[in-house]
Structure formats: structure tokens, C-alpha cells
Amino acid sequence: MKHAFIAPINYLHLIPEESNYHLILTHLLGDPTYAAFYRAKEERGDFIILDNSAFEFKKPLSIQEMGLACKRANICPNIVVAPDYPFQVAKETIESAKGAARIFSQHFDVNKAKLMVVPQSKEFDYKDFIYGVEALSEIDLVSFIGMSILGVPNAFKKLTESKSISVNRLYAINHMESILEKSGKSVHLLGMGDDIREITYYKQPFIVGNDSSSAIWHGINGIAYDINHPHLLRDGKIDKEVDFHITGDQGTEICKFNIKTLQSLLG
Questions:
Q1: Domain CATH number, residue 216
Q2: Do 189 and 209 form a contact (C-beta atoms < 8 A)?
Q3: Which of 25, 49, 98, 156 has its CA 20 to 30 A from that of 72?
Q4: Domain that holds residue 152
Q5: Tally of domains within the chain
């Protein structure tokens, strides 16, 4: 599995040089430092996923907005995350993704870029979530399915009797294994929860990547992974949104330790 390290702009230099799999946030592409960093990564041939910033803004940016941001930054991603609507019925995300596919070629080079779709549903409605997976995977230009830290627990937590991101995502993927395999799409795990070791639990070949700010954001906040704890985070995931514009260099050594620890999980 590939891992995309996410970092505040002032900490981008901590992303390992050998990392060649990245998830970038559309709303940050207006920052010259951020854009230049990832433009260099694209130019050397790295794999770039462009996120729609729905997690940060609680609503997605449109394909038009994403395309314009990329044009201004002079970056052409490999994967563009189609607009999705957390906590809403599957149909809303399906129709949005279909609309994105219809105009995709107007904003991105379809010879390089493809779509990632992110299934959603109302709370506890895992059947609608599964319906969304099946319907979304049939849309033209879709090559990735994103399993998010919002949508998966929201749909499956009644079945699992747990709010844990890793418990729900592992259950959901195992539950839908034949559907996902049959779809022929790659699966990306969007974000991490309390259990950093989750990325070691999957054996399915269609699961290709994960992204998270965990290693660096926890480090900035003085939290080192505890290698003796089963989840690495003794007190769970920090309840503090990432400040992508934070200044200073606090926690740099802890960030480096967390990065190396996470890399060791990936093998």
C-alpha cells in the first residue's frame, strides 16, 4: 500500500523524498509554496490525487473550481476526487459524480486524469452506501473508489456497534469485497483514525493507497507514536483540525519519528 503524507505548508519539506504518492488539497493550490512543491513532484512523475476539500469545508468544491485551481498552479493530477456529499443519501453523490464526468474533459486532460468517487449515505444506511458503491463504479472515467473516514463509519457503525474508523472500514471492505473486486477499480483509504496500524490489516490487492496528516500533525502537537501501543496513539487521534498555515518548526523531530514509524508499517 502507498501512503500519501499530508503536511502544513511550512512542513512540506518533511515529506520523505522517496514518497511518490500524494494527495493535494484544491483550496491550498493558491499558495505559491504549496503549488511549487507539488508541481515539482508531478514533473518528476509522482502520482497525484487532487482532493475536493469536502472534509475541510464540509462541502465539496466543483470540478470547475478544481480545474481552475490546477490550471493556475500548472498541475495536472492523475486522480481527481469527484464532488461527494457526506451524510446525504447516496443518490446525491451519484448524480454529482455523473455531472462531474460529463464535463471532466473540459477541465482536465482525460489522457492522464481520471476520477475517484467517494460513496456516502445517511446515518446507519449501509445498504444505500453499498448501492452507491455499485452505481458510482459504473460511471465513465472512474478508476478509484475512496473509502472515507466520514462516510464509512456513518453507514456501518450500527452493524459494527462501534464508532471506530478502522473497525468500520475493515468491516465494510470485507463485507463488500466481492463488489469491490468485481468493479475493477482501485480503492484508496481516505484519512486515518485512532488506529494507525489499520493500514496493515488489508490484504486485498485492489486496495492501493491511504493518505493522512497524522504523522506530521501529531508530531507538530508534540505527540509521538507509541510503538508499544496496539494502535500507536495511546490517547487516540488528536481532536484538533490541521492548521495548514501554521508557522514555526515545533515538533520537527517528533514528526520525523512518526514518519519513520509509519513507513515501517508499510514495509
A1: 3.20.20.105
A2: yes
A3: 98
A4: 2-266
A5: 1
Q: Quick check: pTM over 0.70?
A: yes
Beta bridge partners of 79: 49, 114
Each residue of 25-38: pLDDT tens digit?
A: 999 999 999 999 99
Residue 248 CB contacts under 8 Å (≥ 6 apart), including other chains: 10
pLDDT digits (tens, 9 = 90+) for 122-131: 999 999 999 9
CA 153 to chain centre: 15
- Burial of 143 from C-beta contacts in 10 A (0-12 / 13-18 / 19+): middle
**Nine cell digits for residue 116:** 475517484
In DSSP terms, 114 is beta-bridged to 79
User: Of the candidates 92, 82, 160, which has an alpha carbon nearest to the alpha carbon of residue 132?
Assistant: 92
pLDDT in tens, 123-177: 999 999 999 999 999 999 999 999 999 999 999 999 999 999 999 999 999 999 9
